[in-house]
Every structure is written in C-alpha cells, then in structure tokens.
Design brief:
The complex is a heterodimer. Chain A is built from five helices and no strands. By secondary structure, chain A is mainly α. Chain B folds into two domains: 94 residues, RNA polymerase sigma factor, region 2, helix turn helix motif (Rna Polymerase Sigma Factor, Chain: A, Orthogonal Bundle), CATH 1.10.1740.10; 74 residues, Arc Repressor Mutant, subunit A (Orthogonal Bundle). Chain B has nine helices and no strands. The N and C termini of chain B lie far apart (42 Å). The relative contact order of chain B is 0.11. Classes of the chains: A mainly alpha, B mainly alpha. Chains A and B meet through helix 1 and helix 2 of A and helix 2, helix 3, helix 6 and helix 9 of B.
Chain lengths: 103, 179
C-alpha cells in the first residue's frame, strides 16, 4: 500500500456513514429545545405588558377585590401549575438531549 | 429526477418554516460536516459530532443571512470551521485521552495502527488553517475555490496549504519529502 493509498483509506475511514438517524435526531432535538426557549423568551414581554396593564387597572380592580378574593387562590394555583409544567417540559427536553440523543 | 430537491430549494422551504426541509439538508450534508470536524479536532468523534450538531443549529438560526442558497454546503462548512477554531483555541487538549482514542479505534484494512497514529499526529501538527484546507480539499473533495470561500482564505493560500499539508501527511505515512 503506497502512502497515497493509506492517506485515502484513513480519510475514508473518518467519513461517517449516511444516513445517520441518531445524528439527525440529535440535531432536530437541539432545534426543538432552541425553539422552546425562543417561545418562552418571546412570551416574556407579553407577560410584562400584562402585569403593567393589571397595575394600571388597579384603581378599577380594587373595588372588586372582595369578590375576586374568592377566585384568587384557584387562579394563583393554576398559574403556578402552568409555570411548573413549562419549567419541567424545558428541563426534560434538555435532559433528554443529554441522556438519549448524544453520540 | 423531479423528486430530488436542490439545496437552494430546500433552503427556501426551510426559510418558509419547514423543519422537514432543513432535516433533509442535515441528512444530505452531515457526512461532510462531521468528517470535517472529526479531522479538525481529532480528539474523539463524540466531541467532533457535538461540534457538527452545533454547526447545524447555528446554520438553522442564521439561515436568513445566507446570501446564495445554492452555496449552502460551503456556507455550512464555514460555520463549522469557525466553531472548530473556537473549540481549538479554548479547549485544553487532552493528549492522553486522544492517544487512548487512537489506540482503541480501529484502523482501516491495510493500514497499521502505527500509520494511523502517525497520520493523526501529523494532522495535529499542521496549523489549523492548513489542516482545514487538507480536510476540505483532500478528504471531502471540495475544489480549491470552494474551500477558499468556506474558510475565508485567498485562493493561492488554500492551494499552497493543500500542497504543503499533503506533503507532510505523506511523509508521515512513509513517503518521501517531495511527495
């Protein structure tokens, strides 16, 4: 085997076999995680705007406080659960990437 | 032949929001990108494949900045090259781990383990831009102009890097100085 042949054989050995679905799935999974983070990031300004609106409407809402107090624990619980679910989903997506899809 | 979409068409569909189109681009070019990162890092294929995934992710995020969709592969290899440069600069190279990887991975038929180690060492001793030129032109079959675009180097520099790099590798594999 000439040095040229060896060089070509060694280069060819490093070339990955196609198609490699594990690699493609890993890329798709990273894209999905990135998209999830972008979605969360995009919702932040809306959340801030909603809070600002509520704060601005405080004089209007204040007289209704007593009647709203009945619903507040339920509402707070729902919001908390939604936040926990979102955080858990993102965490699972990242952990899944480390455990299942890397090569 | 109508079923096979060109890179430019796939880029257009990916820009319109098609993940399936981008997945096809990944499938089509993963071999070239991974081969390139493996040759650039030479520190185990897992790290190189991780770098290749990051390159695809970066390409997906900045797809709108691609001016010539037909040149997707060259553009993608340029991203991989810049990421590899960052990794080479910032990484503390673990020579011991690299040696273990070389000794435990299989050499192709007809090539001894010593040749493989000599080749890896010769590649590692090449300057990163010389190594990149060798990897793209000799291993991946890119033309000199394509490699010049991907690496952002003058065409003459690419040609001289390929000639010099090839001679160094052939010498490491038992060739003469003027190989």
């Amino acid at each position: 085997m000439t040095p040229e042949d060896k060089l070509n054989a060694l280069f060819a050995a490093e070339r990955p076999k196609a198609p490699d679905y594990v690699f493609q799935a890993a890329v798709a999974q990273k894209m999905a995680v990135r998209r999830a983070w972008l979605t969360v990031a995009a919702s932040v300004p809306w959340a801030v705007a909603a809070m600002a609106c509520l704060w601005a409407l405080q004089p209007v809402i204040a007289p209704l406080r007593d009647s709203l107090n009945v619903f507040l624990p339920t509402l707070a619980g729902t919001v908390l659960l939604a936040c926990a679910t979102a955080v858990a989903a993102l965490w699972l997506a990242r952990t899944g990437g480390r455990v299942g899809f890397r090569r | 032949m109508g079923g096979v979409l060109t890179d430019a068409e796939l880029v257009g569909r990916a820009l319109a929001g098609s993940d399936a189109a981008f997945a096809q681009l990944v499938s089509r070019h993963q071999g070239a990108v991974r081969g390139f990162t493996r040759r650039m890092l030479a520190s185990g294929w897992a790290e190189a494949d991780d770098l290749a995934q990051d390159a695809f992710l970066a390409a997906w995020r900045s797809l709108r900045s691609l001016k010539e969709p037909a040149g997707f592969k060259t553009w993608l290899l340029g991203i991989a090259w810049r990421k590899a440069q960052d990794r080479i600069r910032s990484a503390r190279r673990h020579a011991g781990r690299d040696q273990v990887w070389l000794e435990t991975s299989e050499a192709p038929a007809g090539v001894s383990a010593e040749d493989r180690i000599a080749m890896a060492q010769a590649m590692a001793e090449l300057a990163p831009d010389v190594r990149a030129c060798v990897a793209l032109c000799l291993a991946d079959g890119l033309s000199h102009p394509e490699a010049a675009v991907a690496l952002g180097l003058p065409l003459g520099t690419v040609k001289s890097h390929v000639t010099r790099g090839r001679a160094r590798l052939l010498k490491a594999l038992g060739g003469s100085d003027d190989a």
